[in-house]
Amino acid sequence: MRRPRRKADETREDILTKAEAMLRDNGIAGFSIADLAAALGMSPANVFKHFHSKAVLADAICERHVSRMIARFQADGSDAPAPERLAVAVCQLMEVHLADIRENPFLFEMLVLMANNASLPSALRYKSLIEAMFKDLIRHGIDAGVYRSVDLESMSSTVGAAFASVLHPVFLMHADESELRQRCASLAALVNAALQSPLVK
Amino acid sequence: MRRPRRKADETREDILTKAEAMLRDNGIAGFSIADLAAALGMSPANVFKHFHSKAVLADAICERHVSRMIARFQADGSDAPAPERLAVAVCQLMEVHLADIRENPFLFEMLVLMANNASLPSALRYKSLIEAMFKDLIRHGIDAGVYRSVDLESMSSTVGAAFASVLHPVFLMHADESELRQRCASLAALVNAALQSPLVK
Question: Which residues bind DNA (chains A, B) (predicted)?
């Protein structure tokens, strides 16, 4: 029974790869499952067997794209103090997005459409990445005695929310880059002041 | 020369009011300038003389809607300490949006489309309202000796950005209300800890 399952997975990957290439070149507006099936030499019914709707397909492409972006992103592993590490990590992640907008405008536009619906798998995946990153950074600061002791789970979610305006695709699409960089640094300073305050919970 | 100018302003208001009513009932997807002109007993050319595109018209409606929403919103003028006032004000403003989503779903959907482009007049107007509200709240806290002294202009902008995920229409549209309320309270606690910290700048 293994062989057919692997084949189905391979077909799924082939569909994703071709769909992504078509979307990368021409955007989602002119994209159709019919054209995709023709380009793959498949029947549209076969494509629909793997992806029940254009939305599901788009979401899967976004999820793959986000995963690759994450893999490319290297949080600063330096010996810098926690507050500096946090500021550097957030601003680097924002720069990865800004590069993505320049290099893959059509794909990023699709990501923005997807991100408007926070309950989609790709949006949830991105959210959990962000929170995991903040969890590491805050834990590091607490261990080093720089940040106050807090509930890691809820604090990483709150800190992630505080950076939404510089990390969420919707905000990055039409924003002025120098304004974004300024805002990113200011938000990092605000969050760092809170995390070092005895008042933080 | 005065009479014709007043008439033009009146015509502009008539167009806005009729367009808003049509959008409120049926959303933007089925909306057209041709239908609007017919409903007003005008020529489409006459409508276009006042609003050069559907986007300009939609933005003007959003701006009017945001202005009314602001007028309806009363920041807490109580004697509560600054941190509590800030928390109450942000969460009340969020509730105004949530009520708006329930009462005017089509209009709010349009607001979300508009808000995706931060350079539109209605989006800029909303941003300046938010920042003015935070400026008042932070100034009050500094005057009362509760918040540290900061640059009011830049801090109100940073604090506004920190609350984007609970105040920006894009985030409110599909979000879970109880999660939003939790996040709003946590962000307020984080910002209040920062504003009372000697580390804040």
Answer: 32-51
Domains annotated for chain B, with CATH where assigned, are: 2-52 (1.10.10.60), 62-195 (1.10.357.10)
Interface residue ranges in chain A relative to chain B, Cβ cutoff 8 Å: 112, 116-119, 154, 157-159, 161-162, 164-166, 168, 170-171, 173-175, 183, 186-187, 189-194, 196-197, 199-201
Q: What is the pLDDT along chain B (201 residues), one digit of tens a residue?
A: 455 666 888 999 999 999 999 988 888 878 889 999 999 999 999 999 999 988 889 889 988 888 887 777 665 566 789 999 999 999 999 998 898 888 888 888 888 777 766 677 788 888 888 899 999 999 999 999 999 999 999 999 999 999 999 998 888 887 899 999 999 999 999 999 999 998 887
* Cβ–Cβ pairs < 8 A, chains A and B: 103
Q: Is the ipTM of this complex over 0.90?
A: no
